[in-house]
Structures are given as structure tokens and as C-alpha cells.
Specification:
Number of strands: 0
Shape: elongated
Oligomer: single chain
Radius of gyration: 18 Å
Number of helices: 11
Distance between the termini: 22 Å
Order of helices and strands: HHHHHHHHHHH
Structural class: mainly alpha
Length: about 200
């Protein structure tokens, strides 16, 4: 963590997108090394540990980066007790617990934390509406998520109209596209991590 933070902190010339790619490669490298060092460890536990570590790195080196490690820990613990559902998402949103809402959204939809964060925190209302419709969530749940950053009644009214008019089938296709794109990005990160691992063994 510290080495990566120092390295990326010094590279002020790197666009944020490239920094995120480097963090993704670092995540895959860490996951591979942990799997080798701890062959008896369950894969989900390794994934959760790596995700918590990665969000701390992103918070330290990315513009407007946010540390979700504690929220991830809480959500992962809850998921260990029972399956998460829409009620959990709505509950966190209604309570104003945006970090936990981001983590639950990412887990329910199986999208990256950064994608869920954009929907909840950065004003991408249309994407949130489409994902909510694709997941079959109620307007009450989507409204609770919107209200984490948006309180203008007129904006919420227009969002409700848009949500009502969205096609569920079209929304599901968009969600599928998002998942395919993220899967491609993960595969690229895995390939880069594998090449890095091979070079390290040869040196």
C-alpha cells in the first residue's frame, strides 16, 4: 500500500483513469500473491481483503478519492450473515449512510465500487435510474439514493417521471453492457498482473 501510494503520489502527470488502471493491476497482483502465500484461504476472503486495501490506496492517491474500507467491512460482515437485498440498500440510503449504500449497490448489481460511487455521489442520475430499473427496484429505493445528494423537489419529480417511463428490458441491456465492459477491464488487469508476476520470477 505505502509503496503504491508514494509512487502514484509522485506521478502528478498521470490522468486519473490511468491511476485507476494501475490500482486495478495492483489489486490483481496482490490477489495473486495472497493466493500463493495463503493457499488455504477462501477466495472471497482474499477478494474482500484486497478490495478494502485498494480503496485506501485510491483514497490516498486519486483526486476526490474516498476510503470505503470501513463501509466495506460492515457490508461484508452483513453479507456473511445473510444475502443482501434491496431493503438493505434502501435502509442505508434512508439513514444517510452513503458509503454503505455505495458498497451495497456495487455488490447487488455486481459492478465496480467506482461505478457505484459515480451513481450515488457524482450526479449521474440517468445511470442510477437505468440501473435501478434494470434491477427492478422500487422508485422509493431509487429516490432514497438520489436524496443522498439531491434535494430539489423538481429534479426528483422529473426523475420519477423518467423512471416510470423507462423500459425494463432496455435498462437490463444497459446493465449487461456495464458488466461486460467491467469484465473486460478486469481481464486486462489480470493479464497485466500475470505479465508482471512472470517478469518478477525471471528477474
Amino acid at each position: 500500500d505505502e509503496a503504491l501510494q508514494i509512487l502514484l503520489g509522485q506521478r502528478v502527470d498521470l490522468p486519473e483513469g490511468h491511476e485507476r488502471q494501475l490500482v486495478e493491476i495492483a489489486k490483481e497482483t496482490a490477489r495473486r500473491r495472497l493466493a500463493e502465500a495463503l493457499p488455504e484461504a477462501a477466495a472471497p476472503a482474499l477478494d474482500q481483503a484486497v478490495e478494502r486495501s485498494a480503496t485506501r490506496v485510491e483514497a490516498a492517491v486519486l483526486p476526490n478519492g474516498r476510503d470505503y474500507s470501513e463501509a466495506l467491512r460492515a457490508v461484508q460482515a452483513l453479507a456473511g450473515e445473510r444475502p443482501l437485498d434491496e431493503a438493505d440498500l434502501a435502509g442505508f440510503a434512508a439513514a444517510g449512510r452513503a458509503d454503505e449504500a455505495v458498497c451495497v449497490l456495487a455488490r447487488l448489481v455486481q459492478l465496480a465500487l467506482a461505478t457505484a460511487e459515480r451513481m450515488v455521489r457524482t450526479g449521474e442520475n440517468d445511470l442510477l435510474l437505468v440501473v435501478g430499473k434494470g434491477q427492478g427496484w422500487s422508485w422509493a429505493t431509487v429516490k432514497a439514493l438520489l436524496r443522498l445528494r439531491e434535494t430539489d423537489p423538481e429534479v426528483l419529480r422529473r426523475a420519477a417521471e423518467t423512471y416510470e417511463g423507462l423500459s425494463c428490458t432496455t435498462a437490463q441491456r444497459v446493465v449487461h453492457f456495464l458488466k461486460v465492459r467491467e469484465a473486460s477491464q478486469r481481464q486486462a488487469a489480470e493479464a497485466a498482473a500475470q505479465r508482471q508476476q512472470i517478469r518478477a520470477k525471471r528477474s
